[in-house]
Amino acid sequence: MSTLKIHVFKDSFRPVIKLLDENGLSWSMREQRSCVVMGAPGIIEVVLNASMWVSMASVLITFIKAKHGRKVIITTKDKKVIHAEGLTAKELEKVLEKADSVAAIDPDKSNQ
């Protein structure tokens, strides 16, 4: 089963999983080992299927627009780095189809 990794930073975990659930996307948490240096405190793995790109684009756009300062950075399989802010839903869908991982960043704790 293929998955798309979403690295969640700061306070992005709760908003991201809420949006994934609201959009009917299947996900799980990747086990983290405390002896390993991690760039992100958590990794969510979203199950890939042919129809999930529209929903995933919606999740990321909603996450970005919900609060000023939020960022989504996508790394493609060919190691290109793309900032999702300002992309249309269709553009984001095309980028996500080539994605290796996604980083969701909420820089501040006042979103809860």
Automatic annotation (TrEMBL):
Specify the species.
Answer: Salinisphaera hydrothermalis (strain C41B8)
Q: Does the keyword Transmembrane apply?
A: yes
Record's keyword terms, sorted: Membrane, Transmembrane, Transmembrane helix
Give the stretches traversing the membrane. 46-64
Q: What is this protein called?
A: Uncharacterized protein
